[in-house]
Amino acid sequence: MSTTKALTPKGAATRQRIIEGTSAEVRERGAAATTLDDVCARTSTSKSQIFHYFPGGKEELLLAVAAYEADRVLFDQEPYLSSLTSWDAWQGWRDQVVRRYRKLGVHCPLGVLITELGRKTPAAQALTGQLLEQWQGRLRAGVTAMQEIGEISPELDADQIAASLMATVQGGVVLLLSTGKSDHLEAALDTSLALLRATAAPAKPRDPELLHVGASEDPT
Amino acid sequence: MSTTKALTPKGAATRQRIIEGTSAEVRERGAAATTLDDVCARTSTSKSQIFHYFPGGKEELLLAVAAYEADRVLFDQEPYLSSLTSWDAWQGWRDQVVRRYRKLGVHCPLGVLITELGRKTPAAQALTGQLLEQWQGRLRAGVTAMQEIGEISPELDADQIAASLMATVQGGVVLLLSTGKSDHLEAALDTSLALLRATAAPAKPRDPELLHVGASEDPT
């Protein structure tokens, strides 16, 4: 949330209204084309109010909007993402992710903002880094939970798996942005989950439909 | 290759020199900042020569450079990509991909060009679509080859796996572009390959160490 000062409840509400209005504006016309005048008109605020809450002007406002969009990325994956403790929850998460990105289509509001702020600026990098860390942390917690109940092999490194799932989602989204279709995203999530699922401890009764994982090739 | 006319060998060589010089220029300073004057200076050609080979000027030239960069994306994965018929070859491919993108770092020349040409223009979309198709086709051929020799479960859908691997690579690269580190790319490739490897036909003896992701267990 960058530079939030101590605000009154009313002040916080106004600040939030400005952020949400700017978010909607950016989603409609892009970050570069969004002006403070547009934001004033849309949120029924004055320029002086905007500068009161965002002394750095448009750049500071866009950074706050990017932080808001980053929160939404995670929020839109709930309630599943924070509670990946069954295959049903993982499937629910998979569906939610696909739904979110299909809906956004070829527009990635956070990507647009990060690009506008400058992908390599410290502020943008900090924001991206934090989002990735939180996202991956929740996936890792989910993998660990599944390992504890014997649904994913305990021999796998949960952090590696979480990093891999992050890449899977990002790649699927990038290909959706480029092709307009969610095929890759769905194939990648389905494949990853099916393969993980197939690593479950072999002590349990096997479902013949599951993949024959656990068997190996001999090293010739 | 867009609008290549029938060229003499010398003409084809000049055209190629212009493309390669422009590619180097774009890699150094970006597509937007590259001018035809820069290209002339770098490739020892005149403006009239450039317009002879690229009557559409900078835009046509950048499109030809994008096609060249797209070819390089595939070429840089050879000789492995076209011959993914053993786990050694897959490992070689994995290493080559990681090496390529580590070397490029936070710069993606093709991405820069596609952005400059307009991500949603028909020409850019055709180029991206073709690259994805070829890339995915070669991965699919590799998966099929491994299924035929019993190294990947025949029950898996080779096209889904190939699409998933495409997303894995793209996601890893996107995260590399954003974080500057190849951790996600490596984790994602290692996880995908380890999980695929573990699906091999169950007739063979089991190796309890096999599921340990990242462990290189190939004693060839």
TrEMBL record, chains A, B:
Keyword field contains Transcription regulation: yes
MF (Gene Ontology): DNA binding
HTH tetR-type domain segment(s): 18-65
This protein's UniProt keywords: DNA-binding, Transcription, Transcription regulation
InterPro entries the UniProt entry points to: Homeodomain-like_sf, HTH_TetR, Tet_transcr_reg_TetR-rel_C_sf, TetR_C
Record's keyword annotation contains DNA-binding: yes
Domain of life of the native organism: Bacteria
Protein name per its UniProtKB record: Transcriptional regulator, TetR family
Organism: Kibdelosporangium aridum
